Structure formats: C-alpha cells, structure tokens
Amino acid sequence: MNEHFQPPMRKKRDDEPFQRLREMVDQFFDEKPIRKMFETLDEYFHETFSRSYIPIDIHETAAEYVITAYLPNVNRQQIQLEFHEKVLQLTVYSDETLETTDEQKQIYKKRRMHHRTTRSIPLPYPVTEKEIQASFENGELVIRLPQKKKYIDIN
C-alpha cells in the first residue's frame, strides 16, 4: 500500500449540534438580572477578600533577616505589631464611615465598617523583643532581625 492514511476532513457547518445550545447559554449569561447578580458577587468577593491579605517579602543577608509587609493606604496608627515567642503578629485595623446625603445636605444613609486583618509571621530562630526593629514608610513596614544563622565557608 503506497497510499498514506488521511483522516477524514471535518466539514465546517453552521448547524453544529451544540451551536444552538452555546447561543442559548451565552444569551442566558448576557441577560441583565444574571449579569447584575455576577457583578454583585464579584464586588462582594473583592470587598471581602481584598482587605484580608497582607503581602510580605522575606529575605536575609549575612547580617540580618528582613521582613517587608506591603500596606498601601494604611496609616502608622492602624498598624499593631506583637511578638509572641517565635511569631510576629501583624494586625491592621481600619474604620470607615460612608455617608450618603441628599440635596439639602442631610444624611439619609450612614454605614460604618470595621476591618481587622491579621497575619502571623513565624520567625526562623528565637530572638528577644529588643532585637526586633520595625519602621514604616511609604506604605512599607520593614522588620529587621539580627542574623543568627552561622554560615560555613566551603573550600
């Protein structure tokens, strides 16, 4: 047999079996009530979980162990740092008041929100409270510990 096998070519047709089903599903999700529901869910999850995470970077040098927490839109007064044995507890508090007024400048809707976000940061080795240094500037909390690891040179 000198002939090579050729798989059958699929014909492009507009009337594929699931084409109508795809159109119906697309139409369903484009309907205003359903779209609004998804937008509301997106907004809820964004508001709920965007404030509940404190991103940090950790790096170490021969002289120190450095933890950097990124806290944009946070004031120094909103930050609390606690030390418990081998764990640092970083807590950010925020109080927010939203008011809606009418044309006569009278408040007809007032909403207060209190948020507390906490992150526990395990330390790599025991330190004393006096050895921990922390500074806050431009939305970055920098925590410095002295390096206690002993590095051995390899020849």
TrEMBL record:
<dbReference type="Pfam" id="PF00011">
    <property type="entry name" value="HSP20"/>
</dbReference>
<feature type="domain" description="SHSP">
    <location>
        <begin position="47"/>
        <end position="155"/>
    </location>
</feature>
<dbReference type="InterPro" id="IPR002068">
    <property type="entry name" value="A-crystallin/Hsp20_dom"/>
</dbReference>
<dbReference type="InterPro" id="IPR008978">
    <property type="entry name" value="HSP20-like_chaperone"/>
</dbReference>
<dbReference type="InterPro" id="IPR031107">
    <property type="entry name" value="Small_HSP"/>
</dbReference>
<comment type="similarity">
    <text>Belongs to the small heat shock protein (HSP20) family.</text>
</comment>
<protein>
    <submittedName>
        <fullName>Hsp20/alpha crystallin family protein</fullName>
    </submittedName>
</protein>
